[in-house]
């Protein structure tokens, strides 16, 4: 815990230092301020607000601007549910329900899940229509902080909704990139017919004030803050500190070198002697590389003789993991060790953020409701 706390403080200070040195042109940019005003003006005019959060950080990814408004017509959407721990997502949904706030967990890249979410939204729309029969169209507005997947969700709703309605015509698209804060303007996408339902995709907005160290760290690790602000090595160390204390690595026992008898290499030969299809050691996203990473991490963590809770031992384990992963990723030795560490960090973060190294929820449901800020 001491090693993780130290990393959290380091990351938090890095974010605050950059935010302070660059002022409003970095953390709370001029386009964010303009977007915040535009969103605030539209909140009273739309029928439903979809507050999109990252399912890995259901509390830390809150869109704080909405606290100014009643939550009666708000739905909290926990996007990227495929990257979070499933049982903890269920706990968060139950927690929001206990606070009388509608919530739904979704994976914007899963069509079946999107259809299920659309059915849920249409049921809410029917309730609104009963209250206002004169409404010809229903408008939803998606809001959220950077990189929670608003645009990806809007595009999926638009595509699946249009196909379900058998509508012809050119599909619109919101811009989707892995970089946070790329949406610059509000766009409208039709997601259903009979009644017509439109979704407004809005720019991402950070809170005006820099938040505490732990929230900063979680936002940085999940990609809401650009990696360059903190540095990929520190972020990868933070991820490994989480992995080393979690239970996910225990699922990789069968990938351990002691279990398989050998480690897969780029020579395309397995431990059973079966010929594999051509493999490329430099591509860290290939299954055999990912399995090597998993098995290696299992071996290192499960055999570690130090104390994981305190002292310098956790930092020593993370150092060992970086050293060994250079070989697993087939990185050639470089004169400057930090350069290889940076390459390891880049690959690790990519595998974590795409769910290849397990499912982690960084915000845990408090033991009592008082730990959750009131939503109404």
UniProtKB/TrEMBL annotation:
**Single GO cellular component annotation?**
mitochondrion
Q: Which residues form a coiled coil?
A: none
Write down the Pfam families for this protein, in alphabetical order: MMR_HSR1 (PF01926)
| InterPro entries (alphabetical) | G_CP_dom, GTP-bd, GTP-bd_ortho_bundle_sf, P-loop_NTPase
Domain CP-type G, first and last residues per copy: 36-208
Gene3D superfamilies to which the protein is assigned, alphabetical: 1.10.1580.10, P-loop containing nucleotide triphosphate hydrolases (3.40.50.300)
Provide a GO biological process annotation: mitochondrial translation
Q: Which UniProt keywords apply?
A: GTP-binding, Hydrolase, Nucleotide-binding
Q: Name one GO molecular function term.
A: GTP binding
PANTHER family linked:
DAR GTPASE 2, MITOCHONDRIAL, MITOCHONDRIAL RIBOSOME-ASSOCIATED GTPASE 1
Q: What is this protein called?
A: P-loop containing nucleoside triphosphate hydrolases superfamily protein
């Amino acid at each position: 815990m001491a090693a993780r706390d130290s990393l959290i403080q380091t990351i938090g200070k890095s974010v605050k230092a950059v935010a302070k040195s660059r002022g409003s042109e970095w953390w709370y940019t001029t386009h964010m301020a303009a977007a915040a005003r535009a969103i605030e003006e539209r909140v009273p005019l739309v029928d439903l607000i979809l507050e999109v959060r990252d399912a890995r950080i259901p509390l830390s990814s809150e869109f704080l601007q909405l606290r100014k408004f009643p939550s009666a017509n708000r739905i909290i959407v926990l996007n990227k549910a495929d990257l979070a721990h499933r049982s903890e997502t269920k706990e968060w949904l139950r927690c929001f329900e206990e606070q009388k706030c509608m919530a739904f967990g979704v994976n914007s890249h899963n069509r079946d899940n999107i259809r299920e979410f659309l059915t849920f939204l249409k049921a809410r729309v029917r309730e609104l229509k009963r209250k206002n029969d004169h409404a010809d169209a229903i408008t939803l507005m998606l809001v959220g902080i950077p990189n929670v997947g608003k645009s990806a969700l809007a595009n999926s709703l638009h595509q699946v909704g249009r196909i379900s309605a058998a509508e012809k015509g050119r599909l619109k698209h919101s811009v989707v990139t892995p970089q946070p804060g790329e949406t610059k303007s509000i766009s409208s996408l039709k997601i259903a017919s009979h009644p017509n339902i439109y979704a407004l995709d809005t720019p991402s907005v950070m809170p005006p004030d820099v938040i505490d160290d732990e929230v900063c760290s979680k936002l940085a690790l999940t990609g809401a803050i650009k990696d360059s602000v903190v540095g990929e090595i520190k972020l990868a160390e933070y991820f490994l500190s989480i992995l080393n204390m979690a239970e996910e690595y225990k699922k990789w026992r069968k990938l351990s070198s002691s279990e398989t008898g050998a480690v897969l290499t780029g020579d395309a030969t397995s431990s059973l002697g079966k010929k594999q299809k051509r493999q490329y050691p430099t591509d860290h996203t290939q299954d055999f590389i990912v399995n090597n990473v998993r098995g290696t991490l299992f071996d290192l963590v499960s055999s570690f003789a130090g104390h994981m809770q305190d002292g310098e031992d956790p930092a020593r384990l993370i150092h060992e993991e970086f050293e060994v992963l250079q070989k697993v990723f087939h990185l050639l030795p470089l004169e400057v060790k930090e350069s290889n560490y940076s390459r390891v960090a880049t690959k690790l973060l990519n595998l974590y953020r795409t769910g290849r190294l397990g499912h982690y929820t960084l915000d845990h449901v408090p033991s009592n409701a008082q730990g959750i800020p009131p939503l109404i």
